[in-house]
Amino acid sequence: MHGTSLYWALNIDTKLVDFVQELATVHEVDFPSVQRPNDPKTQEPIKPAHEFDVRLEPDNYTEEKYQLFENYQRYVHKERPVEISRSGFKRFLCSGLGQSDRVVDGRSQKLGSYHHCYRLDGRLVAMGVLDLLPGCVSSVYLMYHQDVKDWYFGKLSALREITLATEGEYKYYYMGFYIHSCIKMRYKGQYQPSEILADPGTYSWDPLDADFLARLSARRYVSMSMERRLRLPPHQVTNIEELGLNNDELTQYRHYQKEYSATSSNFRDSQISAFTVGMPGVMSLVEVESTIPLGRWVIKIGNRLVHLDDLQSWAEWDIRDATSLKGYVAELAAALGPDLVDQLVLKL
Q1: Across-strand partners of 131?
Q2: Which DSSP state fits 184?
Q3: DSSP assignment string, 135-150
């Protein structure tokens, strides 16, 4: 999917043995590991000029963390001061899974939501937001101060997080969404071996390799199960005859061609409800309707807080219509679950 979000994962397995050995070098810059040669005059160890420290901390709010977030949103995302708030930061990045430990094969393994804090001479200069789950390390967000914008913290944090995943014996490292049309995300494809959940037909994982990247560049919409079935080349097809398709395959190709040639707007308009698709991990429509009172969900309109069922057309909208507000809200509720819905306020 050229302009669509795809979920990306790095498999921490035996293929990474050589790479993992190299990752051990990331600790060499940690203050306790920095080499301290003796001063020729005093014969005392020379103190490093700077102290670099990286550690996991609970994802609780501190003013230090908020100031870093405020700087990052203002300079990198170009948000106005009025758009940045302490309450928004807390809601976005400080309300995770909590923290706990478990023992796996005799080794302690952390679980929950954490802040991966990078400090230089005691100053917080960058912070990653991580969810440590039984099978993976999931990278949620990264922020860094404007002063260190040239330090490649995106790549540095990825190496640190891959090291954390391997040392903690988590099976996967999730780097989140990959949007091929977003240049800033292209670096994610540089870490191998990696896989991407990108097939809306089968929800299967495929290698994020040169062949897949070429297909993403050639088409707005990519379904690898369909591409394999029709034996499509990775480049753009200019002559249908060269594909050697039979009549049934040709019909399938023409339908597929309409999908990958669609603009993002009419692609959305043609979407059916997630409830019809049966998306894995998402509540069914029956579950939503029986456990979540959607109409009582609070929405902020301007400076007013109202319930959804106070909206004039709420009763008329069809919950199965993915293009209606009720359909959007129902799909969101199905993904979030009743506990989060009860805590969140929607905003127009």
Answers
A1: 113, 138
A2: G
A3: TEEEEEEEEE-GGGTT
